[in-house]
Amino acid sequence: MTKPQKAIIIGAGPAGLAAALRLQQYNHISSVVYEIRPKPTTLGGAIGIPSNGLRLLHRLGLYDNIRLRAAETSNLVLHAIKGDVIGKADLTSWSRDKTGFGYLRIQRTSLMDVFYDAARLADIPIHFGKRLVGIVENSDGVTATFDDNTSDTADFLLGCDGIHSAVRKLYVDPNMTPEYSGVVNIFSLLETIMLPQARLSLDGLNATLTTDGLLALCPCTATNEMIYWFFSRQLSMPPGGGGRDGWEEKGKQEVENLKVTLLELLKDTSGEWGDMWKAIINQTNVVKFYPIFRMVLGGQWARGRCLILGDAAHAMQPHASQGVSMALEDVFLLSKLLEIPGRSLEEVYAVYEQKRRPRTDRMSKMAERNGNVRKKTGPWQLWLQECAISGMMSVYNLCRLDRLGIGQKELAYDVEEEEV
């Protein structure tokens, strides 16, 4: 195969811009990025990026700028529904030792600012307001056509356009659609200046299990002036199959009832933790409702000169904080494979899938398991769950099981060590 010279990338999120940067830096392949939104989005809450993703961001040259904008949130603090602390754990003690990186939480808009700045410095063109309507390929290349009657041709095309990927729907695997996970996320970003003094000691991810889901908060800026808080709970799909109108109505109802719901769940929560949450709930004026969808395992990722990456191929529940990291691993493996001489794109994509599927399937199942703590439960079951988790965390810390890498080995994985 003649070495590719140009790529079309659909999607200007982390996956698409990481792909454009890596292909230029390492493979000397130029990319043109097309984004359906009319301008950079201001939507989103905060994103967690563990060790495996941070190491790859460092190799892209982005880590230092991200670190200036992010909070270190490697610690997990679990609070009982009554308010007292029942367990603490360092989520990255072992993986940090192996990789040199911990766990950062950053506002999505701040993360995208870093990516956009890097793309501008690298002179990578990004075209907004481009809705993909067609893909045609032949032996010479692949052509993408957009709804404004413009088109572009390149040696290959990457679909980095998220869980509702147009590349997947139009060309790669039209029959594969996302499925609802059964869990929703209601979240907000809030400035901490008006919160109680306890805000000054906030460290890492602080969580409380309730009878109706998981309630958690963490800082998401380097100076801790902003927190990201969320309520993650099990919720049935709206009547009629969960169309846009059904979800909008259900989301509206959930948001309207949120303060009453949370204050009722926390009525017995006391102390600094209880005071903190009641202040957060009362001071929050804007919340976002987000039903969590995921991709079914086993879908098609490649067709001809086209490959889908990141959430377009293997969107998973966010309960393992691996969305960005999985996309980065995709990008780095593809980049490595493209440097091997003598392989056709078909062969490159085949090896790519062989190497990536076991890893992404494993992480998707982990995220699904982690989501189980969002399910509804009764008061006695919650108490038993708190006791069990407290006991496990105590044994983990007392026996220093972190030294064995238990629960952290996936975070030390290095995709560039894959034999290809």
UniProtKB/TrEMBL annotation:
Pfam families: FAD_binding_3 (PF01494). InterPro entries: FAD-bd, FAD-dep_Monooxygenase_BioMet, FAD/NAD-bd_sf. The keyword Oxidoreductase applies. Keywords: FAD, Flavoprotein, Monooxygenase, Oxidoreductase. SUPFAM superfamilies: FAD/NAD(P)-binding domain. The keyword Repeat does not apply. This is FAD-binding domain-containing protein. Residues 7-174, 300-364 form the FAD-binding domain. Gene3D superfamilies: FAD/NAD(P)-binding domain (3.50.50.60). It comes from the Eukaryota. Belongs to the paxM FAD-dependent monooxygenase family.
